[in-house]
Amino acid sequence: MVIKANGYAVWELLQREFDRRFKATGHQNMYFPLLIPQSFLHREAEHVEGFSPELAVVTLAGGKQLDEPYVIRPTSETIIGHFFAKWIKSWRDLPVLVNQWANIIRWELRTRMFLRTTEFLWQEGHTAHSNHDEAVEEVRRMLDTYAEVAEEVMAVPVVKGVKTQSEKFAGALESYCIEAMMQNGFALQAGTSHDLGQNFGKAFDVRFQNKEGQLDFVWQTSWGVSTRLIGGLIMSHSDDRGLVLPPKLAPTKAVMVPIYGRDGGKDRILEAAHRIAREVGAKVDDREGQTPGAKFFHWERRGVPVVLEFGPRDLASGSIVLKRRDTGGKQPMAQAELAEKLPALLGEMQKNIFDAAKQRLTSNTVLANSIGEVESILKDVTAEKGGGKFVMAHVKDDPRCDLRVKELKATIRCIPLVDEYDGPGKCIVTGEPVDRRALIAKAY
RNA sequence: CGGGGAGUGGCUCAGCCUGGUAGAGCACCUGGUUCGGGACCAGGGGGUCGGAGGUUCAAAUCCUCUCUCCCCGACCA
User: Fewer CB near the last or first residue (10 Å), C or N of chain A?
Assistant: First the structure.
């Protein structure tokens, strides 16, 4: 995977937002090995079953066949479990709250730019606790953190929920997730937070002595978001003219395009442009040999929130023309007001972009009361043609139901934590009672 | 792994059927004129046509093998 400069700058801004929140909640960054002894994966039965098909394995190193192959990490629960066992002896050692920023490999058969790549960058949080309640609290806290960054920073509204048992992380008790809706109505799992119970504690013998002096296995959690979020960001906001970045994730918030005119006032224009740009923190596009029109298109396509036009007429009148990326609207304003108005405008744009996405999510979420209804709603939906919906239906968390929904090329994305609909009902597959509607959608 | 499609200057592609001097647009370089939504003129640089083998006087073009990439399905953050 290659991420070029503009995309990587967005990733860095996202990283900063997450990292700050992780540290504020007591987590510390660490680093663990890229190569994991293959046998580690086999210690947890569901884990190895889930990940085996997509492992890249190193069998040769230093010119020799290895006695035991290494796998390139697809996720790090196992190797971290191995080290937790060495480090944790007492209840006083708990909780352990670590995070790792790393790259991982999952050998996908079918990749899609940013959304599903063989290699991706992510963060994986791994924590160990002395009891289940505290672990669950951690799982929920980090899910809330993900939802907060998605909504407030990325301007992407999400549904928080629990995965079905079929869809949960391999080796977890429960997997919580946030699901976002792309512009084609497809769902994108934007972040996951897992309650691992004592599964990995038992598999890696991570034991501690509790206050009563007895040995017990730790309760673990893990949670992650990846560079997939960049794909989600693009697919949530962009339009036919290119990328639309919410201001909080725009590496460049404003670009000024100077226009020189025919009267040889170029030097004065440039001088004033740089002065004004400095005051408001904008970048001046003073490249030679490009017309203003070409520059407007250039920055528009890259999603820069605000483009400022500054030409001879503005120089004469003390004004400047501002164009916002989200609505495409142009407005003239006094140069003196710009520094003051720009931050407020960026804030308004951030909100506007979120509101538009929220509106889309709401209007494309529908109820269905039979499997036939779900089928007819999702029948002709494809990633390319769009038309996808979040279909809310009563479905039991039962592998049979997951299989039935899969026949429609859709999945049960999650059972929402908050029931915004009509409470209990009968499962549309089995007829059994369930306490709320679940979210069914086609997904990336 | 099944089914489709494509490999020709940096990019997008034409040329292939019917073998005969490798092309276009964009991008790039030089000079000039321009500049309020993808500028124009003039000049210029750059390609062993994915690879190997074969047929032929002659292969981007025909034949055989092979590699890679993209799209569609089954598996998935």
Answer: N
Determine the nucleotide nearest to A108 by Cα–C1' distance: B76
Q: Give exposure, A226-241, as e/b (b: 16+ Cβ within 10 Å).
A: bbbbbbbbbbbbeeee
CA gap A289, A297 in Å, rounded: 15
Strand B, nucleotides covered by protein (CB < 7 Å): 1, 29, 33-39, 70-77
The answer to whether A325 touches A333, Cβ cutoff 8 Å, is: no
**pLDDT at A385 (0 to 100):** 79
Give me the domains of chain A, ranges plus CATH numbers. 5-237 (3.30.930.10), 250-361 (3.40.50.800), 365-441 (3.30.110.30)
* Distance CA A209 to C1' B64 in A: 72
Q: Quick one: DSSP state of residue A174? A: E
Q: Which long-range contacts (C-beta less than 8 Å, at least 24 apart) are formed by A169-172?
A: A169/A50, A169/A194, A169/A222, A170/A46, A170/A47, A170/A48, A170/A49, A170/A50, A170/A51, A171/A44, A171/A46, A171/A47, A171/A50, A171/A77, A171/A196, A171/A199, A171/A200, A172/A196, A172/A197, A172/A199, A172/A222
Radius of gyration over every alpha carbon of chain A, rounded to an integer in angstroms: 25
CA to C1' distance (Å), from A109 to B52: 29
The interaxial angle of helices A335-363 and A266-280, nearest 10 deg, is 60
Asked if A247 and A349 touch (Cβ cutoff 8 Å), the reply is yes
Q: Å from A360 (CA) to B39 (C1')?
A: 40
- Which nucleotide is nearest to A113 if distance is taken from CA to C1'? B70
Q: Across residues A325-338, what is the average pLDDT? A: 96
Confidence tier at A379 by pLDDT (50, 70, 90): confident
Residue A271 CA distance to nucleotide B58 C1' (Å): 64
